[in-house]
Amino acid sequence: MAERKGDALHESSLRYVYMRGKPSGYSPDDLVSSHKLPLEIMPEPMIREHLRFYSNIGHDFQILFNKKPLANTWVILQTSNGSKFDAQTDAQGRVSFVLPDDFKDIKPGRRANKAQEFVLRTVHIADGLTYKSNFSAPYSVNPSHWQSNAGGLFALSIGFISGLVIMRRHNKNKPQKQKKKPANSQSNGSQS
Predict the structure, then answer these.
(1) End-to-end Cα, the chain, rounded Å
(2) Angle, CA of 181, 182 and 183, to the nearest 5°
């Protein structure tokens, strides 16, 4: 978090960093939901650990001013690859952006594609002060470029069919157990 205050200007920038360290015992959602700045851009939900900001997927954000949703405010999204979009918040201060698939030379595998940066910016004027706020984060290539649902279903089908064949062979080669006939406690002969 960084802040700069002037006579008629308050600028701030916010970035959440995942450090891959030992769990602290606190939920990242608690960190995000705590009030940090007068004008704040909050990701919803917080991206962490195994989740990432991916291209071609809609991501939601909420704009707050003094802890209250800021409706009908323009928000600009700009990527380090040169894409730029804007959108207006709804009545609850929420805005959604589909991060652009503006990567060049996409290679198979997440690690083969370097993450890029995006920045969200918004401005609000209140009580003679201009508030400017930024939120920045890395975003990655959507895994759909190298992952195939059809290929996954095909592999799953082959595994299922192979399992059925193996079970049938196993059951054919296994001798069947003979059912025991219930023993009669009384003989069928005549009693004296």
Answers:
(1) 103
(2) 110
